[in-house]
From TrEMBL:
Residues 47-175 form the HD-GYP domain. This is HD-GYP domain-containing protein. Pfam families: HD (PF01966). It comes from the Bacteria. One of its GO terms (molecular function) is phosphoric diester hydrolase activity.
Length: 175
């Protein structure tokens, strides 16, 4: 039986007898595959983190364009995760919701600056345009086949209705 050790990122295999040339070649191929597997895992983790970062950067760019107060995207993200866990969703599902929720206002890129940055209350026509950011967001995201984007589209429902009351009306009522 070989003695196998892992130390400081190196993998050691000590055999108690001489290996044949074929066994050495097979072991080298096996070790190369292990190395490639670890490299692929590292790249996958990096890709996932980069994707999350891009989602947050896009959401922060939308937030910076509007009159949202600081860290709105992060607050919404954490609140959505907490609500998902309280609702009984798995940690994985709550994490997906957490990372999809920053896209909830992406449709604001289609709303004119004059409305987004208007100080004070919006008039009825401006409010109707502002409410359309939900539909704009769906149009922007609906072509994606990615699970994270699909979760974001599911979250669009939070802006639709709750017991027949539009979410915008709930916001006005302070709920």
């Amino acid at each position: 039986m070989p003695d196998i050790k892992l130390s400081s990122g190196y993998f050691y295999v000590n055999f108690y007898r001489e290996l044949s040339e074929l066994a050495v070649q097979l072991l080298e191929i096996y070790m190369q595959n292990i190395g490639l597997t670890f490299e692929n895992i590292s790249l996958l983790i990096d890709f996932k983190e980069t994707s999350k970062e891009l989602v947050y950067n896009l959401a922060n760019a939308v937030e910076a364009r509007s009159r949202e107060t600081g860290a709105h995207v992060q607050r919404v993200s954490l609140i959505c995760e907490r609500l998902a866990l309280l609702y009984g969703l798995s940690d994985h599902e709550a994490n997906m919701i957490k990372h999809a929720s920053p896209l909830h206002d992406v449709g604001k890129v289609a709303v004119p600056d004059s409305i987004l940055q208007k100080p004070g209350k919006l008039d009825a026509d401006e409010w109707e345009i502002m409410k359309k950011h939900v539909d704009y967001g769906v149009e922007i995201l609906c072509r994606s086949q990615r699970l994270l984007i699909t979760w974001s589209l599911v979250l669009r429902c939070e802006r639709r209705t709750l017991n027949g009351v539009r979410a915008f009306d709930l916001q006005i009522m302070g709920i």
